[in-house]
Batch of 2 targets.
Target 1
Amino acid sequence: MTVFGSLPPAEQARQLANPEGRVGLEVAEWLNGNNRDGNARTLAMLGVQAGDRVLEIGFGNGRAAPDIVAQAEDVRYAGIDISPTMVAEAARFNAALLAAGRASFHLAAAERMPFEDAAFDRVFSTGVIHFWREALVPLGEIRRVLRPGGLAVLGALDARCPPPFARPELGFFLRSADEWAELCREAGFGTVHARTIESEQLTPDGTPAKRYAVRVTAQR
Ligand SMILES: C[S@@+](CC[C@H](N)C(=O)[O-])C[C@H]1O[C@@H](n2cnc3c(N)ncnc32)[C@H](O)[C@@H]1O
């Protein structure tokens, strides 16, 4: 069994929402394996081009940054996360990119981003937006930091068949693809698509199970 699988649901939820300490580092590593396919799909949908400035919200241990900057010439990556443990680990893992000025990792929340208007061409996030009870605030921030025509790709747990830890009383606010699409339109995005994707993932105790994820693309 993984370290994550050995935790009670409330602690699993807490470590996913804000990974902390040694356990947080192990949870983040477990997530890397679990989210590999989803992250690859997100990357393909982002369509990163030469010179793009790309923002990741909730980067965890920062393993997506090298893939982003490898997409094309002169791509710059910035990430925000609310976990000091994750910011330190992402900076450690990406020390060379950081030193080269091609990536930056900020301790900040999606609800209040430390960036100018229209600072990014692309924004993406995996496994974070389902923590947003009041989703219009961070969605409005994503729209604000995207340039006109810029694209956001957001992935989250779907409301269908949630794992045991993904409950509102533990800080998870799961929505359907239609509900996310509606919220993005309300936040002011012009073109929005959202759909549910079915996949096979490992449960925390290591057995394969069907999981449902929402993938949203929203263009400013
Ligand atoms: C479940 S982990 C996902 C990490 C990574 N995206 C992945 O797929 O492996 C969620 C991450 O989002 C961060 N996070 C949660 N709420 C956030 C918020 N409002 N703003 C920024 N980061 C947030 C957490 O600290 C954590 O590192």
Target 2
Amino acid sequence: MTGASKGIAREFAAAGASVVVNYASSAAGAERVVQDIQARGGTAIAVQGDVSVPADVERLFARTVDAYGRFDMLVNNAGVYHARPLETVTRQEIDRQLSVHVTGPIRMTQEAL
Ligand SMILES: NC(=O)c1ccc[n+]([C@@H]2O[C@H](COP(=O)([O-])OP(=O)(O)OC[C@H]3O[C@@H](n4cnc5c(N)ncnc54)[C@H](OP(=O)(O)O)[C@@H]3O)[C@@H](O)[C@H]2O)c1
């Protein structure tokens, strides 16, 4: 599951899934989620990776298969949110939004397939 450092992966683990808790920069948050899942008897690992970076996408799947031998489900959950007046949004921010919300999920899905 991408963008899982804030806690949503707990719900999937509670339903029986072995989870890859992906994060971009929040290592401590992701580790906390993994520890919570393990404390409840679930299975989880944290894997850093930016969904907008193709090499990171490949590494995410490689680590997943290394850990679990397979995967059954991809959850494209990573997102970025910066509320501000539209006229102040920079080209860089537009590119970032597109790479995290559009290109990244497409790359993730291609790699999954
Ligand atoms: N917050 C709101 O009130 C609200 C309301 C409506 C819609 N939304 C939408 O919900 C989405 C997430 O917003 P949020 O406020 O929940 O953000 P958030 O709390 O910062 O959580 C975003 C998650 O996505 C991860 N992430 C971000 N960029 C990533 C990347 N390039 N690769 C991998 N993981 C990445 C973050 O990891 P790290 O922590 O490691 O960076 C974090 O786990 C956005 O699309 C936003 O538009 C939010």
